[in-house]
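User: Predict the complex with alpha-D-glucopyranose.
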Amino acid sequence: MKKILSALTILAVSFGGYASELNTEATANKGVTYIPSEAVKKSQKEFAADRFGIFIHWGIYSMFAQGEWYLNSGIREDEYCKAAKGFYPADFNADEWVKAIKGSGARYVTFTSRHHDGFSMFKTAESDYNIVDGTPFKRDVLKELSEACAKEDIKLHLYYSHLDWKRTDYPRGRTGRYNGRDSLNYNWDTYYKFMNNQLTELLTNYGPIRAIWFDGYWDHDEDSIPFDWQLDKQYEMIHTLQPSCMVANNHHVNVIPGEDIQIFERDVPGENTAGLSYQELGALPKETCQTMNGMWGYKVRDTDYKDTPTLIRLLVKCAGMGANLLLNVGPQPNGEFPEQSLSRLKEMGEWLAKYGETIYDTAGGDIQSQPWGTTTRKGDTLYVHLLSADTCDLHLPLDCKVKKAVTFDGKQDVKFTRHKDKGIVLHLLEIPDVADYIIELTTK
Ligand code: GLC
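Assistant: Here is the predicted structure with alpha-D-glucopyranose placed in the model:
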């Protein structure tokens, strides 16, 4: 039954109408209506225009080189945390990171301030288990990153885990169960206060934060009594501390009032190949997060990186759905980005330098997610992105009138005829073997 339901949900999501118009108005749910402030609406518009961001998963887990879930693999928490005392990422250089991010054409970065292992990658008064007080490195890497971002006008978003595999006051969920920690004496009140105090530090000490990106809500999705995360008060606190800060939550369920971005993990909105995207497509700005290899945190065995054309196509598909791509890098324990990530970032930047006009500041196009590719729109211009077309005579069932069609490169005229039923048929001379062959239509 579960399988049937899943299949039905996928169908519903794929054919449920493409609400790609950016709608920053109210979200209503269970009688609660949330209306984003003008400051948040401005961030939403800016965010949606950016289209491309870089996710960074970095913590003491990088030292084990097994990904960020290593503490959930049956090892003891009191052994794991000894890594902090040896964490000295000698080659960390925030300016170099930001240079690579900027060079990729990305316009924002989302940094893991505290992941599920409970280690804070910033100076916090709430616990010594942090990069400044708990390691010989003693540098506040988040401070350095925030300053480097400000210099280069890269917007900063912060990932924050709702769940914690170390703290004994966190009410244990379905993960992190076998690491030797006392889980009987949990205390939601002290844990909730701890999180809110840390969020206050994050939103007070590091300049403008454009979004807080939560994760871990799903840790309690198997509870017999629905778990109350008290999100409403937390979201309100964020919006009060920094009125232009957006709230995002990777909870895999429908948007909850107070959220300003809708997240999709490992899938273009409308698809569900990873089995994590059962949520309905909402009207908020959207973001798909994806790994370059298979893991978020640095994993020494995983060198199976997607090639650059695949990553470019992913970005284009997201843009076609009116969504951003948040592409992950898992820095090494020495603080540098892996070489494979650096080369891909550079190549994406080269592609965006040429074709960014068809991606940045566009809306999802009139025709989305087709086997041959997708479209993006800016004003009267519709960009047709041929990602895997196998015919030179391509039917585009458009509602609008087409006045002119040219290749994006070289602006060569492309012949087209009216289709007997609807729209036009493009008559291409060839489809070159490139990541994305773009045809520019002038419409009215
Ligand atoms: C999942 C993983 C987490 C990762 C996140 C990124 O929630 O549990 O480790 O940070 O995805 O999207």
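Confidence is low (pLDDT under 50) at residues 1-23.
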